[in-house]
Specification:
The structure is a homohexamer. The first copy, chain A, is of the alpha/beta class. Chain A folds into two domains: about 160 residues, Orthogonal Bundle (serine acetyltransferase, domain 1); about 100 residues, UDP N-Acetylglucosamine Acyltransferase, domain 1, CATH 2.160.10.10. Chain A contains eight helices and 14 strands. In chain A, the strands form three sheets. Chain A has a five-stranded parallel beta sheet with strand order 1-4-7-10-13. In chain A, strands 3-6-9-12-14 form a five-stranded parallel beta sheet. In chain A, strands 2-5-8-11 form a four-stranded parallel beta sheet, with no helix packed on it. At the C-E interface, loops of C face loops of E. Chains A, B, C, D, E, F: This is Serine acetyltransferase.
Chain lengths: ~300, ~300, ~300, ~300, ~300, ~300
Amino acid sequence: MSSYKYAENLEETVKKLSDFHSLEELHHQSCKGEVLPSGQQLRELISLCRSLIFPGFYGSPDVSDKNLLYHTGINTEKLFDLLVQQISAGLLFATNDPVLHNDPNQLEELAEQRAVEFISYLPEMRRVLSTDVTAMYNGDPAAQSKAEVILCYPAIRAICNYRIAHKLLTLGVPLIPRIITEMAHSETGIDIHPAATIGEYFAIDHGTGVVIGATSIIGNRVKLYQGVTLGARSFPLDEHNNPIKGIARHPIIEDDVIIYSNATILGRITIGKGAVIGGNIWVTENVAPGERLVQAKAKQ
Amino acid sequence: MSSYKYAENLEETVKKLSDFHSLEELHHQSCKGEVLPSGQQLRELISLCRSLIFPGFYGSPDVSDKNLLYHTGINTEKLFDLLVQQISAGLLFATNDPVLHNDPNQLEELAEQRAVEFISYLPEMRRVLSTDVTAMYNGDPAAQSKAEVILCYPAIRAICNYRIAHKLLTLGVPLIPRIITEMAHSETGIDIHPAATIGEYFAIDHGTGVVIGATSIIGNRVKLYQGVTLGARSFPLDEHNNPIKGIARHPIIEDDVIIYSNATILGRITIGKGAVIGGNIWVTENVAPGERLVQAKAKQ
Amino acid sequence: MSSYKYAENLEETVKKLSDFHSLEELHHQSCKGEVLPSGQQLRELISLCRSLIFPGFYGSPDVSDKNLLYHTGINTEKLFDLLVQQISAGLLFATNDPVLHNDPNQLEELAEQRAVEFISYLPEMRRVLSTDVTAMYNGDPAAQSKAEVILCYPAIRAICNYRIAHKLLTLGVPLIPRIITEMAHSETGIDIHPAATIGEYFAIDHGTGVVIGATSIIGNRVKLYQGVTLGARSFPLDEHNNPIKGIARHPIIEDDVIIYSNATILGRITIGKGAVIGGNIWVTENVAPGERLVQAKAKQ
Amino acid sequence: MSSYKYAENLEETVKKLSDFHSLEELHHQSCKGEVLPSGQQLRELISLCRSLIFPGFYGSPDVSDKNLLYHTGINTEKLFDLLVQQISAGLLFATNDPVLHNDPNQLEELAEQRAVEFISYLPEMRRVLSTDVTAMYNGDPAAQSKAEVILCYPAIRAICNYRIAHKLLTLGVPLIPRIITEMAHSETGIDIHPAATIGEYFAIDHGTGVVIGATSIIGNRVKLYQGVTLGARSFPLDEHNNPIKGIARHPIIEDDVIIYSNATILGRITIGKGAVIGGNIWVTENVAPGERLVQAKAKQ
Amino acid sequence: MSSYKYAENLEETVKKLSDFHSLEELHHQSCKGEVLPSGQQLRELISLCRSLIFPGFYGSPDVSDKNLLYHTGINTEKLFDLLVQQISAGLLFATNDPVLHNDPNQLEELAEQRAVEFISYLPEMRRVLSTDVTAMYNGDPAAQSKAEVILCYPAIRAICNYRIAHKLLTLGVPLIPRIITEMAHSETGIDIHPAATIGEYFAIDHGTGVVIGATSIIGNRVKLYQGVTLGARSFPLDEHNNPIKGIARHPIIEDDVIIYSNATILGRITIGKGAVIGGNIWVTENVAPGERLVQAKAKQ
Amino acid sequence: MSSYKYAENLEETVKKLSDFHSLEELHHQSCKGEVLPSGQQLRELISLCRSLIFPGFYGSPDVSDKNLLYHTGINTEKLFDLLVQQISAGLLFATNDPVLHNDPNQLEELAEQRAVEFISYLPEMRRVLSTDVTAMYNGDPAAQSKAEVILCYPAIRAICNYRIAHKLLTLGVPLIPRIITEMAHSETGIDIHPAATIGEYFAIDHGTGVVIGATSIIGNRVKLYQGVTLGARSFPLDEHNNPIKGIARHPIIEDDVIIYSNATILGRITIGKGAVIGGNIWVTENVAPGERLVQAKAKQ
């Protein structure tokens, strides 16, 4: 095929699409040649975290007590490098701070500090994720072993990405956390905002369609089924009729709550400790501790 | 490993599976050696469209006012070539027209015309997509910037694929549009049929589980949450008890409607301007403009 | 970038992460160097099955009556090799049987037998899948051709993976079946447990969010829409308060049932022959044959 | 890094390099979008020929009497496709024939005929190459087996490429043969012009630096060592002082000749049957059958 | 396979090989994490130069007067980026200058200046290389077209790499030029030191084994055949018995000289204008202009 | 393109090429499904050896005293695995020993022992190669640093491959050593038989065309220039007129000898300590220690 015959027809479109002034906010101009957040690097970063946390299940399968030190050393080094690059990229992308844009040494210094803090947190992250694995193994009669949970359950991958992203967010890294949770969203259908707060022994079964909003607070030993939404109900508007950003607007789910499939919990309400929310219902008011709520009876 | 020992056991299965007469409609015979629709090429085609529409966010990150013309020129040329190949492939796959199958010059001529028409539409497609970006940024308190919407929000990718596929469909290209929207479906969980009609400032939040049927008509400034279905209720059957194809059977959603998560809207009904449909409900009758509909109260 | 400056800071984390005793069940030690289940190989295995079952649609597009024998022969051989490797990997991973771990000849013998049995079943699997294609083509007014169904419909890919995984499960292969259905889950949002029992002419429309639990039994000519759950309601607990594994706890769906989008059917109940379950409802009790059930009316 | 700061400096060079008129013969304009000869495709083409001729040594190692038919069938089909593409590319590149440039059906017809003729010759090519293998195995005390010769000896690869290229040249295919022998030249340091005529049982030892010119004629059972040149001495010049093309100007080497390392044989002379040429000498006159020629004695 | 059983045996070797003090000059410590010269990037850099100089022959084949500007713009930008990276890498690798090692802005500034100077020279480099193409086409009766020379002749690739490397060397870039000529050496068997000085209309036929030393000076319209050495005869030694570096020690070849295959020209001698040196001879003294020198007669 | 039209024409050739009986020694039948020697794995094996011997120059550039242990540990483990696989492959390919073919545990045991012995030799191999680097740096006025020698000089790569291959040969590994030296031959034009014996401080300058035969013995501090042959003169023939294998037939080069470019040294002769052999000469008789030999004078 050849575009030769239509070169002149195409010329005009090329000109229109190249009109920089028409682009406004639809492009990103990288006039200093900074590295941008890279999907491929972030996927590798996630892979490295997973293989450091669950060695032998992710990353090289040939891990033993004889060589774990070597593998951990190499993977930590690679992770550090990727973190420094992507944290830098996120900082440059999301801020206009002239110091960061003009002084590469300061930018690198900042990114390296964040990277070290993140890596230092990995042993604790492993401990918390192990409670999630336990919760999902204990809570699912179909699970044959914890190995099956770690290897096959999409919720583990989604929660792992969330815990990584949440830590980066608390370290002040912009944009990157959101990309990381959206990767899990695409892979598993589970959409957890990195700003949400989630306790230990957290379980999601099946998971497709789960949405956990940015200001949600989830206690310990909570279990969600597929299609559950922890969302916002309405937003206070500013003078331009746009939602005001940064207001707590998602539910608080206390310890030991179970929410069945496709239930929708909306607004800054509290689902009390030990409550059980049945499937396919729409909840916009507080639910008392221990309460059990189910859908109105269907009709024939 | 080796199949040598079991060669004779396998032989019989090979023969059964190679029995061409048993295949009927389960294979595609390509007796002229035509190029087939290719998932890999279509993924590249989508990437090129995205980088032409949102330069710097997709494709090469090193885009500036100094070099945008070069990038646009090269990408337009590549896109033209891919379009010609895939449009040809779609035409050959889906039609029995002997002219297209036997006269490569006529086929190429037709495919090139469609490709040029598609490319000429890209500046307008950029304008419409920019309204979708604006709607999603304004409507989500969690969005930090339009850049975050373009880079991270799955709905942008799904709507972008839909707008590309819809244009190709209106140009008479078979099969390819459906493959393109199914790619977005797999990536985002959002399933928009390429034949649906969708206005400007269209927003989908989170998105997993959204289904928009082939004859749906959606106005301007409509917002859908995850799990919303715009589906068909029942199909008139033909004499063989199969659904009659081509009848309008999906809803009409007028301007400024909001539909919350997991709501199911079925049949050729109309949701009037400015109506609000609560989550988890099943709607099979018209809803008046401005009406607000929510689920029957749950019971304890 | 360089981790040099922070080498000592990182050293401590490396040591903590390399502490083998802290890993307990969070790692997999492969002290004999066995091959592990491999996502990449299983993806290739699925591709080979698809191209053997639907030649010309999957795999090489240049299939004709002249060369189908060659393609089938080569693909069967490759499939055999992959099956032997992955069945061996699954057996070693999931069992502690010392014979399999220490006698490579016995392990290979067992894996080869299973592989041959699986391959011998492929012609029958093709027949059953062709009924699924027919059901989806006949049941969807938007489908232009069976080719479109085979090429574009995610449900075909999910059901194909399920039927492969179910056969492997009945042959006693551990772990691998679950990985195979989770691949389809990630790709399509449809989560079918490999242990479920599903009849012929099975159709799923759109599909995202569908969950079919391990002990579900589905008859012939059943149709599910997106977001339908066939789940468990409650689990008998053992003395440690954990669910008892292996008890029938999912629904029985008899022949000719239709279940609309986002309906949740929970527990070992029976949905009788020809029943129609409306969308967004929560069903925990038997439904009589032919009954039609819809949601309680919404309120304004 | 970024080219932004120097954009204007680079602009001028871009303009100079884009001045089409300055390019004259230094570019290739492909105004019809024809496929060009492709190094990657030709490498694959050579691999396919090698695996058809020496199955099990090249290509899939899992070849047995049970599956050779399948492998041969598939590889022949792939080879046919590549040949048709590359023969077409060579014809378009090297000729100005308007029929070939404007009638794709005629071009394809011609290319397909040549491809079939080439493939039909492969069994005979296998027979001739087997004589070369035998000659190299018998003539080298260091060779442990014919398998070692086929797998390791660069001369086999160079002669194999030559025999493929020579056949294509005699079928009237332009350019492609030369690219094929230059691939072997780069890989082995052995430079055989595709137009040379070479008999059976041909052996080259080590091979680096061997040059065999276009009009050379080599008999049966000839053996060359590394660095041997069969070259031209002087060329009759035309009125512009350029060499006249197409004149026989390289040596005739009769049966059973041995030429030792770094000997240079120049001009249309004849080295008679059974002659032995010592290393490092310069031969520009006929050598009688059976004669032995060595360098003048060195001095201290 | 598994290294588990031999872990302790291997442990000792790992320790020996990791003993940093034993490494002395055999390793390169990159304590600042600088980018190193990269073979892969340099291969891409060469590809970009070739496609800028000979558009349509190298790089994208779809070059026409309609799109040459776009291709040139994009390739120039990519080349600039690669040059800046690799020039920086070469400077850091080869110098101990603390300014370059500690001030990334100064290093980048220097590398960018050199990159711009190099790119500005490309139009002149194209002109000179076109004289080499002409010389090789006119001088070889086997050449069918200049296109064949550009596409197939290894000498063009070797001379192109030399001219690129020589320019970088004169711009003060260390190490990189040598890597670039060694790439051509490996690909073509032609070893030209980047410091050599070579005039226009330079031709090498076949080329394998040609060696051109660092202080060689070659005039215009010189032609070399395969295996020709322009080498050094003896080196003045310093007090440690090592050769003194930097002394002119290779031949001067004046205009219009022809040197036949495998001739060895050693030392700082002069081969006068228009001289002809026969093959396989060893020349260590001046040769007068126009003289013709051939090997002593062989003996039987 | 399609082979459909010519399917019957091709059918006959497919049958001829698939006739197993006609293949005799031209194929390799792998009836047990053994792994074969793999070019790709051997290239990776060589890369690992190079990065263990010259860390920072080959393999990861980010090597420092902080992380060398990790890199060495991981690379040693990978090398062990590759060695076990390729040694097994070589043993199966080259021997008919039924024990090795039928008892996978014995084969693995043998391969693992050889792999451990090889790896244990690496520290000594590093020491010897460091003498070669020193010899080449000291002997070449053009060398700027030892780093340049290690990174750029083809002879280092060729000698490195030779020393690896020679060690494997002395450990009784068949076939693999020859493949390894042929890889270096293709890359550098230097052809060293793995069975040759070569001392320390060995230098080759430029190298293209150097041939060192299987029974050559080379002392310490020897230097060869490009195109030097250490070959065999004539072979005693057996009763079938084929060369008798295994007889010493190549030269002995004593310490401190220099041999200039394109010299050919043939037969089991001895070049005495400190002798200097001029270029382009043919030597078939002993040369006394300290002697200097040059070509007979050229004539005009």
